[in-house]
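Researcher: Quick test of sequence recovery. Tokens follow.
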């Protein structure tokens, strides 16, 4: 029996439900921030919001990307049908548990929330090991880092400890993943596009400089997790900002301006070195730049933009549609970039902080409403055969 289109490939269900949750979770947070709603007394509303953006939204996008990429890495059949449905049910159980956290035993909430990433890792390890694709085990190492950050979050809550470091660990894992995987996809897609157009100047090939930039960025992310206020961390962050910015320039992103589907990958990646630069400034001059700017440069900026960039491109490419951005897709990109700009500016705006937060949340929600409206029909329909 054939599965319905939504469960024939992981990107379909994962991307669609991640976008639906992104639409729901941010308005819930805005209602909480404005004093109209209490999300969780046990976790705290701020921690609930941070957790659900990382482990609710971003983790599901990663699952969709991972189980779409693994067949290309290994030559094995994709995860689909009942196994994919089971993964989605684990994810949904975690979201329900976090919404009902004040009414359920804390241990049960933790277990239900952890099931999803544990299951993702078990299935992914099985597929990669069976396909003998040892190179991409390092991607799973970062996802293991993400899963352990979630475990840390729940342990901290259960033991009445502040979970701030665990949440930084989760964001740090996502930043490391974008540095690694985004740094592989962006120049590759750019090169292919430029070659088709007969361009003479192409992105620089991967070399020792790229390896140094990846290593420095990863070390910088770890330093941010464990010592965000250290001057040594600021030094590493400044070095990472320079190297990652230089690496990004080597990919010739400006040449992709005619195709927003490619340009957005470069713009999304640019938030990574920008975040490191903000980190260095916030440590050395906290009076000029609060630490929350670093967090939201990476979360709304890098993670929000890069996930939408991957979701739109993969949804088109894997369903037989042309790899070019429609007006709706461009509107989605503009909305998420506006959300990032407003969220970064909000802590610096004095009395305008709340209005900017609300506008940022509305822009974020608009981006994902746009994705559901434009890509929902594509993701739930059979592959397009022109």
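Model:
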């Amino acid at each position: 029996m054939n599965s319905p289109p939504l469960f024939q490939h992981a990107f379909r269900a994962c991307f669609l439900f991640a976008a639906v949750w992104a639409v729901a979770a941010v308005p819930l947070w805005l209602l909480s921030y404005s004093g109209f709603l209490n999300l969780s007394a046990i976790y705290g509303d701020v921690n609930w919001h941070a957790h659900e953006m990382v482990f609710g939204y971003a983790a599901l996008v990663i699952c969709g990307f991972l189980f779409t990429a693994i067949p290309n890495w290994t030559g094995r059949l994709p995860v689909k049908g009942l196994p994919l449905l089971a993964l989605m049910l684990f994810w949904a159980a975690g979201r329900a548990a976090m919404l009902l956290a004040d009414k359920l035993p804390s241990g049960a909430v933790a277990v239900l929330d952890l099931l999803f990433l544990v299951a993702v890792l078990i299935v992914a390890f099985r597929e990669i090991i069976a396909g003998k694709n040892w190179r991409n085990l390092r991607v799973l190492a970062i996802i293991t880092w993400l899963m352990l950050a979630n475990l840390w979050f729940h342990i901290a809550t259960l033991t009445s400890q502040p979970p701030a470091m665990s949440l930084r660990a989760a964001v740090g894992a996502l930043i490391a993943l974008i540095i690694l995987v985004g740094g592989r996809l962006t120049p590759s897609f750019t090169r292919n596009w430029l070659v088709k157009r007969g361009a003479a100047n192409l992105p620089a090939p991967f070399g020792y400089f790229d390896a140094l930039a990846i290593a420095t960025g990863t070390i910088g992310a770890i330093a941010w997790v464990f010592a965000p206020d250290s001057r040594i961390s600021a030094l590493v962050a400044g070095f990472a900002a320079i190297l990652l910015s230089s690496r990004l320039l080597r990919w010739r992103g400006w040449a992709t301006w005619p195709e927003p589907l490619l340009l957005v990958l470069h713009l999304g990646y640019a938030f990574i070195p920008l975040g490191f630069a903000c980190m260095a400034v916030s440590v050395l001059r906290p009076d000029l730049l609060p630490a929350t700017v670093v967090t939201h440069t990476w979360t709304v900026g890098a993670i929000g933009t890069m996930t939408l960039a991957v979701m739109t491109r993969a949804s088109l490419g894997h369903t037989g549609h042309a790899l070019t951005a429609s007006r709706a897709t461009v509107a989605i990109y503009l909305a998420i970039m506006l959300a990032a700009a407003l969220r970064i500016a909000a802590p610096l705006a004095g009395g305008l902080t709340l209005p900017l937060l609300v506008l940022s949340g509305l822009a974020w929600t608009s981006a994902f409403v746009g994705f559901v409206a434009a890509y929902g029909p594509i993701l739930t329909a059979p592959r397009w055969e022109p």
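The two ends are 25 Å apart (CA to CA).
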